[in-house]
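With this grant's support, the team has encoded backbone shapes as discrete tokens. A representative record is reproduced below.
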Amino acid sequence: MTASTQSCESEERLGKYRVHPAAALFPILIESEYDELLCSMNLYGQRVPILVDGDVLLDGRNRLKVCLELGMEPKVQQFDHSVSAIQAIYDLNINRRTLTDDQIVVISAQLMAMKEAERAQLAKKEAGKQFHRGSAKPEKVDTNSYPPFSGKNERSTVGKIATDAKVSYHQNSLRK
């Protein structure tokens, strides 16, 4: 079993959405809190939209789970990319949720590692753009179109300069 196969098998899904790995770090509500949310949404409907990025769920696992259980069409909001998805997930959940200090530390460390990996991947992608990796190769220069060098050591830098300046190799090397 390959690493990519493992990640596909362990990917959490809710309805038609894949749960972002950073969102999956936050525990789901305990049974009594979930029941309260279920009753509230049954009486008043869904008040807070579920945040998604295409088919990836960023925030609102419990709300989506309740919508699916009640047969309600979930209200979703598309992510605006004003910050990274990982940062948005952190901001929306770290203080809102009832978490122990140990959970906060573990989740924060895991999210920091995810952000560093994301940053490294973006840097690699940008480096590829900067050095034209993945793009069409530049055309080869036809070296036959340039006049041949003549004179002593025409392949050396000094010899090329001497040829271009129409001086002898010896005169050019003395001018340094």
Observations:
- The longest strand covers residues 50-53.
- The longest helix spans residues 101-130.
